[in-house]
Specification:
The protein is mostly helical. The chain contains two helices and two strands. It starts with 10 loop residues before the first helix and ends in a 6-residue tail after the last strand.
Length: 84
């Protein structure tokens, strides 16, 4: 059941978002493994980590706004320029 104000996404958009989130997690794991085993220097590790953190922050701060459905219930949809 949807909560008031929670975004409602179609299946393809939701799948794309989940794949994107999984890719960020994979990138973080690979970065950590490279730092521990391959000898990536601290500066390169910090730069890669900053990229991952920035992407995660961007992923979770999607611009959404309330929209009334035909049944009169409010739901949220992606705003213009949001990459989903």
């Amino acid at each position: 059941m949807l909560e008031v104000g929670k975004p409602q996404l179609d299946g393809f958009t939701l799948a794309d978002k989940l794949i994107s989130r999984g890719e960020l997690e994979d990138q973080l794991v690979e970065l950590w493994q490279a730092f521990g085993h391959v000898g990536v220097d601290t500066a390169a590790f910090e730069a890669g980590l900053a990229e991952v953190v920035e992407a995660i922050e961007g992923w979770s701060s999607v611009s959404v706004g309330p929209v009334e459905t035909s049944s009169g219930h409010l739901r949220r949809v992606l705003g213009p320029g949001a990459d989903g």
